[in-house]
Amino acid sequence: MEKPAIHLTPIHPACGHVHAEPRSGRAGLWIQGLFLFTAVLFFILWGRREGFQTFSIIFSSIVLEAFPFMLLGALIGGLIEVFAPREKIANLLPNRPVLTIFLAAGLGLIFPVCECAIVPVVRRLVKKGLPLGAAVAYLLGGPIVNPLAAASTLAAYGMMWKVAMIRLFLGFAIASAAGILMDMFFTREQAILPENHVGCDGCHGSHDGGGFFHRLRAGLVHGAEDFFDIGRFLIIGAFVAALMQTMISRDLFAAAVGVPVFSILLMMVLAVVLSLCSEADAFVAASFRFTGMPFSAQMAFMVLGPMLDIKLVLMYLSLFKKRAIITLSALTAALVFFSLLVMEYVSL
């Protein structure tokens, strides 16, 4: 009688626990293959053209700006994995889901992270049991509702506290609304990838048995795994964003300035395409004041950018299922658009 095959999963040298083999989804492999083909083809066909230098500078600046923050986020996520027991996190969460979502949307005030760093942190918190709605609220609100974003907004707009407060309030309100709606539309199992479910974090068992330095090393290993897992999506997102920025015609601005609906939509598109950091968005938005761009459109850029851009959507592939990403993207864009449209006409 033939014996069933035994599949062994590797023991991780840092933490001593059984780790599952990493699995790359078919969609992820297709995206990576398409990216490599496109990048090589782009270099061969346009490598000697004048626009290629602009593309190269933009691509390099996006990657170099985002990498340190993403590395910090991965490190924080790894330390959460080994130093924050699931039971402790569960005890900190209120029993009421809506209250948990509101608290998560404002968590950036005491735990500020840039959007380049937020995804690995949220992944680890989700694996520790953070509810879906709260995860979405922190994912969207964390990069805006924090002191660093407020300080950069004040610096960009000449210490105008009203601008900074409006940005923080809109970030909090939209992040909370998106979290509540995602909780209504999806369960954890429907929205979150299986490998990110509670108890499926690749390191089964507790790290409490080891000493401090053993656990610190395990946290660094987990952080490195997150960094390399999400870093590929950042590279692809930066490539697409740089390509779009190189190809966008500046004539679009002149046609949209006089119509609030079009100007808000245009600035939202630019926020998605430019893939800037939440601390840099305010300076770019402020530069549009001299073009006559309405304040509502400038605010749409500052609010949507840290919530939804090309690199973020691709990084979401490591956390959410594709249907959830599409729904979250549509919800976020719709909430930002209608909120700023209301603000535009109420302020008139």
Automatic annotation (TrEMBL):
InterPro entries documented for this protein: DUF318, UPF0718
Pfam families listed in its UniProt record: ArsP_1
Lipid bilayer topology: Multi-pass membrane protein
CC annotations in GO: plasma membrane
Subcellular location: Cell membrane
Transmembrane regions: 27-46, 58-80, 100-122, 134-158, 164-186, 252-275, 295-317, 324-343
Principal subcellular localisation of the protein: membrane
Assigned keywords, A-Z: Cell membrane, Membrane, Transmembrane, Transmembrane helix
Protein family: Belongs to the UPF0718 family.
Protein name: Permease
